[in-house]
Structure formats: structure tokens, C-alpha cells
Amino acid sequence: MTLTFHAILLMVLPGIFAAQYADQKRLLKWVLLGSLLLVPLGVYGGFFFGVVDLNLFSGLVGKEMLPLEERLAACPPGRYLSLFFHYVMPRYLALFIIEILLFGIGRRNAEMMAKQMELTEKAGAEMKKRNDLQTMVIEKLSSLIESRDENTGEHVIRTRNYVGFLAREMQKDDAFRDQLSDEMIDEIENAAPLHDIGKIAISDTILLKPGKLTAEEFEAIKPHTTKGGAMIRNLFSNLEDAMFLRLAEEMSVYHHEWWDGTGYPEGLKGREIPLAARIMAVADVYDALVSDRVYKKAMPREQALETIYGESGTHFDPDIIRILRQIEARDERGIDRAAG
């Protein structure tokens, strides 16, 4: 049977699909070429080999099928032209109109894709610019801390590495897998150098004191947590990175909170303490124990680890300490591997 206009509509479907691809011009040309071949093939094939079409075989009605000889006899040269102009050309015209529309759709799609790519590149450039600015500010602030206290400056670099290493190990554990995305770990690692930024506001007399702090001096150093959080809000509020801002503030304000609620500044307890701050607390204390400070000598790492293990459930999150034990059990360098 000759191609009906319903079949023509079906032949448009490949063109619609082709119009969605980046190489749509070449694909649409191939679809159009195939359609130009199929239309006359359908018309003349239907005439010679198909079921009798009352229009094609006017004057030869009454038979369901005609032998090929009768069909050939019913089709002198003039009949070929008649079939072409009356059946092929209208279908060609319909296809051409539809293909022109598809070319327009394809062109519009290509323009939209190009614009989308441009916007994506601009967004990527803006994000890189923002991240570079953020990194630069963090590095400058870390350098400022280091200029006041060399140990503190090195401390923020090491704790950054410890925090990232520990968080990635925690991500593998069922207790934390759903809480630690890759993005969050990257942001925690980037924010870690800012956890002691509030010490900029602490007097050198207290910060660099070679001996143990008095009760009054200890109270005077406590506000470095909340002051650090305020500094972070003021410095980074325009970066429009809500996760970084939140994590950096949490790590600064709450890294001296204790699991049992006896820490400062708010006396938070257990999981009331933000996860990033709980991770920061372990890294912060570990580095403080194994490092020389103006008021003490470095502790051997085995002794430092035993001290931390002993404060599981009081100072530290027991699940984090469990994971720290696992790290140390399988690797003789343990968490120190993060320091390089």
C-alpha cells in the first residue's frame, strides 16, 4: 500500500530525534535524504506490489489483487508522471515543510546548547575565582596566625591534613557514611585552618606564656572560639558558600566542646556538637599533644594516642575514637601518615 500521510508523520520521528543532537545538521540531511528515497519507493512499490489502492487503480476496481502484468499495463509513461505529481510531490512537500521546521528546531537547540555551555563555563570560572579568593584569604590568615606563634601556624596546617584524613576514613564507616559527603569533607578540610583564627584576638602574654595558665588566663583564652566564629562570618559572608561558612564557624566555635558536656563555650553534649567540630577536636588535641609548645615538650605519639583513647566518651565522640583505633591498628604510621 502506498505511503499514507500517517506514515509520513511517522517518518518525521527520526528527524525529531536527530534535531536533539549536537551534530543535528548532518543527521537531518541524512534523514531527509532517506525520506526522499522512501516516499517514491512507497508510492511505486505500493502501486506494483501492494494491496489494491482504489485511487491508484481507478478504473480497475473490483479485484483485491492484480497480477503484476495488469499493473504494468495500467501504468503507461503518463501514469508514472501522474503518480509522481499526485502522490509523491504532496508527500515531498509535507516532508520538506516538516524538515524545515526541524532544521529550525535543531538550530534553536544548538544555540541554546551553546548558550548553556557558555553559562556553565562562566559559572565554573566564577566558582574557581571564588575558591581561589577563599583559599588566598585562608592562607593569609594562617600566615597571620603563624607570625604570632610559629607552633600555632604549623599546627593549623597539620590539623587540616589530620581532619581530611580522619573524615575520609569515617566516610567508609556505617556510623558516618550518610553524614559525610565528598563535598562536605573537602569543605571541612578547607575550613580547618581557620579553627584557631580567634586566637588573633588573644593577648601575647597569654598566648605565648611558657607556663601553665592561671584560672583567670584560661577564662580569658576561652572567647577565642566565639571570636573566631564572628571573624569567619564577617570575612566570608559574601562568598555565598553556605556550607563552607557553616562548617568553618562550627569548627571555630565548638572545637573545645566535650562529648560529656563539660567543654566550652556552650557546654554542648554528645551529638549536639556539630560533627565537623567533633572531628576537629580529635585532630586539634592530637597535634597539641605530639608537638612542642612554649609551655610543654612533645609527647610520644603512642602516649598521645593512649591519652586520647582514654578520653573516649568524655572528651571525644566514641565512634570517632573507634575509627582512629582502626586506623592505628592497620597502619604503623596511623594518622601521622596524613602529615606527610
Overall description:
- The chain is an all-alpha fold.
- It has helices at residues 5-18, 24-49, 68-73, 77-148, 150-171, 182-191, 204-207, 215-221, 224-236, 242-254, 275-290, 301-310, 318-330.
- The longest helix is centred in the first third of the chain and has 72 residues, at 77-148.
- It is elongated and about 120 Å long.
- 28% of the residues are buried.
CATH homologous superfamily designation of the largest domain: Hypothetical protein af1432
What's the structural domain tally? 2
* Pattern of helices and strands: HHHHHHHHHHHHH
Could you say what the CATH architecture of the largest domain is? Orthogonal Bundle
Q: How many E-type strands?
A: 0
Helix tally? 13
Overall pLDDT level:
80
Terminal residue distance: 78 Å
Characterize the overall form: elongated
Low-confidence stretches: none
Which CATH top level class of the largest domain fits?
Mainly Alpha
Q: How big a fraction of the residues is strand? A: under 5%
Compute the gyration radius: what is it?
38 Å
Class from secondary-structure proportions: mainly alpha
Helix content estimate: 55-70%
Main β-sheet, in a few words? none
CATH topology of the largest domain: Hypothetical protein af1432
Briefly summarize what is shown.
The chain is an all-alpha fold. It is built from 13 helices and no strands.
What keyword list fits this structure?
340 residues; 2 domains; elongated; 13 helices; Hypothetical protein af1432; mainly alpha
